[in-house]
Every structure is written in structure tokens, then in C-alpha cells.
Amino acid sequence: MCQLLGMNCNVPTDICFSFTGFQARGGLTDHHRDGWGIAFFEGRGVRLFLDPQPSASSPVAELVRNYPIRSLNVIAHIRKATQGDIGLENTHPFQRELWGRYWIFAHNGNLKDYAPTLDGRFLPVGSTDSERAFCDILQTLAARHPEGAPGPERLKEELRELAVRISRHGEFNFLLSDGETLFAHCSSRLAYIVRQAPFALAHLSDQDVSVDFTELTTPHDRVAVIATQPLTDNERWTIIPPGTLLGFHNGAPGSNGPVRTLPHGEPC
Questions:
Q1: DSSP tag of 219
Q2: Cα 41 from chain centre
Q3: Contact at 8 Å (CB) between 138 and 119?
Q4: Helix (H) or strand (E) segment spanning residue 94
Q5: Average pLDDT per 10 consecutive residues for the chain, totaling 268 residues
Q6: Helix-, strand-, coil-residue percentages of the chain, each rounded to 5
Q7: Please, are residues 50 and 106 in contact by the beta-carbon 8 Å criterion?
Q8: What count of other Cβ atoms lies within 10 Å of the Cβ of residue 263?
Q9: How many Cβ atoms from other residues are within 10 Å of residue 118's Cβ?
Q10: Which pLDDT value is given to residue 255?
Q11: What is the per-residue burial (b if ≥16 Cβ within 10 Å, else e) of 156-187?
Q12: Are 74 and 37 in contact (CB under 8 A)?
């Protein structure tokens, strides 16, 4: 199983702390050694880093971990290959343009007997089921709304519908963003935490690293972090139930279904 990491905030924020724990899962504390990537939205642009090497030993990952890039929306992925060779073209996240905006997508799972008919506007470069799903989603949205993006609630409902359809082929946990909203779909395993005042000390599960967020934030900051498994061992994370699509905006989630909280220390 691959690992997903996302961040959505109400003010530009760096992801260095969370990425420090996440990076270790790519070959140090877990077996996801088949590449990694991370995308930062900056205004209308995207800063994208990809590397087919394990994140735990990647010089590019070290650069990202120590480079405080501030963003409202971030998506990261470490890969355990199920379909497609290990290579840069098969490394998540994937990037495309739709309605004059960049879209970023990363997937965790395995889609079997999944061969959508693609009309040519969005085509995979690599050979993963994940990139095919991304192209399928964008092609469907573009065909339904040739004049431009629908409203946020309509967009969320159509993404939920597409997630249900594609999930019939297998596990389809994903993160997707256009730089405005970060959508998170749970097919089997995904969790999140919202950090806001009063802030506290957080300690990583995969590295002996702590941060006191009271020293780094203002009372008005709000940051949502989404991950396949909780990244800290002293905070209360929330499990996203299978079949749920959340749309994170300004550091807060919306939901099409109930969620249950994860007690301190309980594995997701």
C-alpha cells in the first residue's frame, strides 16, 4: 500500500514537520521504496518534486524537508508499486490542466480490470492505474462542463460519484486538488487532523522529532493534515470512514458522511 499526505490551510504554511515523518516511511520505517513526490500550490502555479528513489534516502527529499515552502495546498505520495514499472513517469503526484487551473492527484490502492475509454484530451504518460484514473476523472468533468468549472458543491458531488464508480475496481484512496480545495477520498484507510488554537506540542511517530506549534503560529491559523496513517503519536486524529469524500478548504473539512475520532495512540 502506498502512503498519502496532504495539507490544506487558511494561511500559507510549510509542511516540513509532517514531511519529516512521512519521508521516513519511504524505506526507513516502512517498505514503500518505489519513489516519492510532492506538489506545492503557489498562487496559480505548482512546484512539483518527483524522484523514483526511496524518499528515506533521496537527496531531493532532504532538500524538501529543509526547505520551508509555504503553501495553502500540498499533496505528497510515497509509492509501493502495484502496476507500472519503477520510474519517473509512474511517480505520483500527477499534474494536468483543466479550466485554466492546474490539478494535482495522488492515489493509494490497486484498480483491477480498469481500462477507461480516453478520448485523447487527457492521456497517461506512464503505465499506472492511478494516472489512468486521474485522466478518466478530468475527462469526465471536462465533458460535463465545457464552459468552465461548476460550483463547489456540484463539483464535490460529481467527484463523489466518480469515486464510487472507480472504486468498484478496487482500492481508491486519493487526494486531488485544484489549488482551491483539497479533496480526500477514503476507500480503505485515511485519517486527518485539524490544528488550530489552542495549539500544542506534537511528536512524530516515525522520527523522534517534536514541534511546539504555539511558537510557530498565530491564534487565527488553521491547518488540516491528511495522511494514510497518523503521523503523530500524541494527538487526536480522525478516521475517515470508507466511502467518504471530504473537501478541505481553509483548513477545515466538509463531509458526505459521519466520521469517528481516533483516540491517542490507536493505530489507524
A1: T
A2: 12
A3: no
A4: strand 94-98
A5: 92 94 82 87 96 91 91 93 86 97 96 95 96 98 96 95 96 97 96 95 94 92 96 96 96 66 37
A6: 20, 35, 45
A7: no
A8: 7
A9: 14
A10: 54
A11: bebbbebbeebbebbbbbbbbbbbbbbbbbbb
A12: no
- pTM comes to 0.93
Q: What is the pLDDT of residue 265?
A: 33
Residue pair 240/192 in contact (Cβ under 8 Å)? The answer is: yes
The string of pLDDT tens digits covering residues 80-132 is 778 878 899 999 999 999 999 999 999 999 999 999 999 999 999 999 999 99
Give residue limits of the domains in the chain: 3-262
CB count in 10 Å sphere of residue 153:
10
* 88 within 8 A of 62, measured Cβ to Cβ: no
Residue 2 is a catalytic residue: yes
**Cβ contact 41:177 at 8 Å:** yes
**CATH superfamily ID and name for 3-262:** Aminohydrolase, N-terminal nucleophile (Ntn) domain (3.60.20.10)
Nearest alpha-carbon partner for 178 in 235, 59, 97: 97
